[in-house]
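This protein record is not my work; I was only asked to verify it. The record follows directly below this note.
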Amino acid sequence: MPGRRTAEERLPGDTTPRDYVARTIRVDHAGEYGARRIYEGQLAVLGRTKYGPILEHMKAQEQVHLDTFARLIGQRRVRPTALLPLWHVAGFVLGAGTAMLGHRAAMACTVAVEEAIDEHYRAQAETLGEDEAALRADIERFRAEELEHRDIGLAHEAELTPAYRLLSATIKMGCKVAIKVSERV
């Protein structure tokens, strides 16, 4: 909204605008780190197949997102999440594990993660005010690329994965838990 400031309608006890922005940067950095690790895990299994270039493309975009948030962590003096070592392992295991189930499961993983991130980024973009227009623009640009990744997954038969709904729901729930924990820890 024009002229609106970040967290201007906050209530007593709500986070300050500075704390809200720090949480935003912290969790987005962690999420993009995890996303890159998911693609690295998928590439370890599927990198020499016809899906390798597709996965490399998505990983490269995630790297740009990660680099942006890493720069903001330094510029804004935001403490990164203490859980990066966990996301390092968990992301790779999720990526490699789904890829070992086949390309469809790897794409189902991509779809689930990107749908969770779309929801997360949309909420952030709606909350950031004009005082954070540059951050909001980055988030909106990254959200569009995450939706591109979702569409790539759907185009490569993600929904044909056995137990697709269960796999998707489980991954989305894991993403939501990781988001909430990484905002604070």
